[in-house]
């Protein structure tokens, strides 16, 4: 018998990965007249994994497939959601893959998410991954025709009420998310323990600094920026800043480098030490105050406060030519907040990047 994995460690799959699997299966059904019962799918991180297709149909010019999301040991409101994809031919649209949001997929109503207002709440990485899977199996067909791909999530409107989507201006459904395709058990004791363990390993190897990052993209960014540091210094803390700093304090590490993007850094600046999106929303009033402090006009500050998205604040300030000053001021607020919580314990450096992993500021 294969031993069961300890509770709290089992990984799952994102809504984006499940949508890509359903899209690939439906596309194959369109091509062959039969949707497969299992489908091997390319994830954004380059892995290939098998998904079971739970419902399907294929007729002339139209195919349908459903993948049920398994979130592993980090179940959220989308666990067991039925990611449903309909694919149909577009005879006069050679080489086009038109991705649409159907019932239960949210609609974007506000700027600041990096998505088109009025478009579906399908984030860029899963969108690209869905299209990549379709093009892998339908490259020959796409030479002469196009495909319309509609993603829907039955019950998505009810699921969305358990998220922050309404505060972010995403209405009538959930978002299709996922930068790697894999759901890690971030909210579990196991992940928290892995953060503590990572810091203890750094200390045991004689390291005097740790680099705390919120995820894979920020870790890659900080590794590029700090090539002279030992790999043991880099710890993906996820949402667990508090446990990470407590552990660093206990083992005597005094140099703390935090790598993050504007959303998570704002959470830290406002006093959150557990920064999961399902806890408290970003305090955009705080961002408006920081914007005012570096010269933004009242109308801009009001727009930032009303928008509810940290990313929108950054876009506004960059548009005014005040981006660097704004980001430096935000990092200063992060350090001030941490100094108040951990007085005279640590020396801080903040490395801030954008959503593509490009450096915005290095605050020391």
How would you portray this structure in words?
The chain has 364 residues and is of the alpha/beta class. It has two domains: 12-183, CbiD-like (2-Layer Sandwich); 189-363, no CATH class. Helices cover 36% and strands 22% of the residues. The chain contains eleven helices and 18 strands. The strands form six sheets. Strands 4-5-6-10-7 form a five-stranded mixed sheet. Strands 15-14-16-17-18 form a five-stranded mixed sheet, sandwiched between helices. Strand 4 (55-59) and strand 5 (62-68) form a beta hairpin. Helix 7 packs across helix 11 and helix 8 (284-293) packs antiparallel against helix 9. The longest helix is centred in the last third of the chain and has 19 residues, at 323-341. The chain is globular, with a radius of gyration of 22 Å. The N and C termini lie far apart (53 Å). The mean pLDDT is 91.
Brief account:
The chain contains 11 helices and 18 strands.
What are the salient characteristics of this protein?
alpha/beta; 2 domains; five-stranded mixed beta sheet; 11 helices; 18 strands; 36% helix
Indicate the radius of gyration in whole angstroms: 22 Å
Q: Helical proportion?
A: 25-40%
The mean pLDDT is 91
By helix and strand content, what is the structural category? Answer: alpha/beta
Largest sheet geometry:
5 strands, mixed
Give, in order, the helices and strands: EHEEEEEEEEHEHEEEHEHEHEHHHHHEE
What secondary-structure arrangement, pairings included, does this model have?
Blueprint: E1 12-13, H1 15-32, E2 38-42, E3 48-52, E4 55-59, E5 62-68, E6 82-90, E7 97-101, E8 104-105, E9 107-108, H2 124-138, E10 146-152, H3 156-160, E11 170-171, E12 173-174, E13 182-183, H4 189-204, E14 209-213, H5 216-225, E15 234-236, H6 241-251, E16 255-260, H7 262-269, H8 284-293, H9 298-307, H10 310-319, H11 323-341, E17 347-353, E18 359-363
Parallel strand pairs: 7-10, 8-12, 14-15, 14-16, 16-17
Antiparallel strand pairs: 1-13, 2-3, 4-5, 5-6, 6-10, 9-11, 17-18
Helix pairs in contact: 1-2, 4-6, 7-11, 8-9, 9-10, 10-11
